[in-house]
Write a structure and sequence with these properties.
single chain, mainly alpha, globular, binds heme C
Length: 218
Amino acid sequence: MLVILFAGSLADEPSIHAHMQLHLDTTVRARDAVVRGDFDAARSELKALAEHAPLKRVPPDARKYVGAMQAAAKSGAKAKTLEAVGASVAEVGLQCGGCHAALGRGPVFADAPEPPAGDDVAAHMARHAWASARMWEGLVQPADDRWDGGALQLLEEPWTKARDPDVDPAVAVFAERIHTAGVDALMKSSDTERAGLYGALIATCARCHRAVDDGAAD
Ligand code: HEC
Ligand code: HEC
């Protein structure tokens, strides 16, 4: 099937599997850089994606996704805010999923591992990271169950005063937003809306990490 869709492409180009794996690795690094609040790293991953030579013999139906993916990566590489770079990462993911859906081909992510357990901040964060990874897979595959499974993890009691009386209110506001994003995510059924939400979500992770680093939580 692949040989038919990408006829001729395999002889003179790296295999599509390697190409796609590179896409995935680059975009996952970009996503995680946004989450950490590492603006420069996120932009440089997107720059690499924008400059990466596309496969040459993409079927005509799928070319627009390549163009849109590269445009999103290019704009993210020049973005001036974490929100804008987050939106670009999400837009890239939307185009990955768009092409996979249009061609009826693409990744089928392996069964998701169990979300990490535990009551401390590190475990809470590991669940946030798990959620953001599953929602990303939901966009890229694309797959509703991945998206919803990730979103559901965001619904747990947020890290606010109710959970921890010592929490800094300047930080708790971001925790509330993550929780609300989980609720909203479950109501979004179109991939375009999901991507919009996802960009804002990872930027919110970043805002809190920056606030914590700047000492708001001391
Ligand atoms: C031009 C269309 C197109 C775009 C854009 C695209 N893909 Fe793919 N992708 C495919 C096709 C077709 C396959 C299936 C290859 C196969 O079945 O052998 C695939 C397969 C994959 C796979 C599975 C690879 C494997 O080893 O089987 C991954 C992972 C993947 N894509 C990730 C991505 C990510 C991440 C992006 C966006 C950054 C992306 N793709 C953008 C067409 C596309
Ligand atoms: C309310 C503030 C807040 C929000 C919102 C937040 N984080 Fe965190 N995050 C923290 C703090 C505080 C730490 C440091 C935890 C530690 O070192 O024990 C952290 C650390 C992390 C770590 C590193 C954990 C480790 O063991 O080093 C990851 C990964 C992470 N967060 C993911 C996320 C993701 C993904 C989101 C968004 C879905 C998110 N966080 C949203 C406050 C937040």
